[in-house]
Amino acid sequence: MVELTGNGxxxxxxxxxxxxxEQVFLSRKSLQKAEKSREAVQKIVRDGRTVYxxxxxxxxxxxxxxHEKDVMQLQLHxxxxxxxxxGEPFSNEVSRAMLLLRLNALLKGxxxxxxxxxxRLAFMLNEHITPVVPQQGSLGAxxxxxxxxxxxxxxxxxxxxxxxxxxxxxxxxxxxxxVQPIVLEAKEGLALINGTQAMTAMGVICYAEAEALAFxxxxxxxxxxxxxxxIMDAFHPSIHEARGYPQQCAVAERIRNIxxxxxxVTKQGDLxxxxxxSLRCIPQVHGASWQVLDYVKEKLEIEMNAATDNxxxxxxxxxxxxxxxxxxxxxxxxxxxxxxxxxxxxxxxERRIERLVNPHLSDLPPFLSPQPGLQSGAMxxxxxxxxxxxxxKTLAHPASVDSIPSSAxxxxxVSMGTIAARHxxxxxxNARRVLAIECICALQAAEYRGxxxxxxxxxAFYEDARLIVPSITEDRVFSKDIEHAAQWLKKNKAGWTTxxxxxxxxxxxRNA
Length: 512
What we know:
This protein is mainly alpha-helical. It has two domains: 2-195, Orthogonal Bundle (Fumarase C, Chain B, domain 1), CATH 1.10.275.10; 203-310 and 323-405 and 415-497, Fumarase C, Chain A, domain 2. The protein contains 18 helices and eleven strands. The chain has a three-stranded antiparallel sheet. It has a two-stranded parallel ribbon with strand order 1-2. α3 (71-82) packs across α6 (145-155), α9 (197-227) runs parallel beside α16 (417-449) and α11 (246-258) crosses α13 (282-303). The chain is elongated and about 85 Å long. The two termini are 28 Å apart. One of its GO terms (biological process) is L-histidine catabolic process to glutamate and formate. Its EC number is 4.3.1.3. Keywords: Cytoplasm, Histidine metabolism, Lyase. It is found in: Cytoplasm.
């Protein structure tokens, strides 16, 4: 089980809970902090102090005072009115991550909500009651208001959920399980929806998939090196140490390890003096993407443990400050940065695909065809990769540079971070398909060169991959091969992945 404290939640923990189904439990110390914060809210209501979101309206209505008898109705109206999401729902994994991250943030004890509500969020996670949350509609400031309102609707029995693989109303599921919907009290609705948990949840899932794909890209690129008789001198440690980027050095080291016993790679001067950039610069380009991944991971893990609602309650309620921690700019930048990093992994992969299929760039059969002319072979596989790479270039346009004022100009600068995270996810899926295409072509090239001459690591990968994608002996519907290979990679079962690598102080190294 994963203990939630409001601090110290990691991306690995999110994987365990949201992807592997591990249960959570709440820290007793954190629950005590939350209860003290709740007592402060109740005292504010009793004393009639004017505090934003507790007994005032929201946004431009912040100067409208709300009578004590109406504060509960205020929270209900807030959730209903702000549930304006549209479009396709987030995946179950992302919605579960939203639940987890919002629960963790509320456990910090600055939000003033009841233990009952915290327990219900944990109950939903542990019972796999997953809110149905539309993807579109968040500006990424004032919190992810629309998505998180749909999450809150599920808590109060007015939303839809996925339970036991069926879409149902949360009211029906709660009734079946013998629990009552939550009735929101002062500040609780606002505490649920003022936060960056939609963009951060989407970002964490993006990162988890991107990290695995970055490792897999090195194995696939190594196989391409064998298919093209690539020159290993470009991976010599001295070159990379001379530049000094640890991620670049680590990529070069991993590829040297992968290809250590290959009889298909060459030395400079054996066949040619140097390779094209898409081979020679793998450490530099992939290493730069790893720099971005490291940056993004740091920002996500800060945000996952941040108090991002408004107002925040300090000093037992003596200090209640209305601020802007809900603004998603840090995650918006991180997601836009990750978009570029993953788009470039796909970009350089597509160039390697071109070298594998273009008869003017290698001595391999034209388009890896078993009968050039009569059969087209991998010709249109490269077209597909080029299309995906081009689509990624448009999706990589930064969302974070846009802003549209809202709430009568009270909320006059927003991050669009949730858009950045959503587009990042599409880029990751496209990049995986491009790398799946490179994998298919590299398998065929390695087979042509002689699989028995491959390195031990790439040969093991080759044999596993051939169970997914058979040899091209005759033209067939390659769309199926692309999807099968992409799903194989997505399931994280394809060789050199995070399960086989650990982080050391001097960079990424393979487990012994």
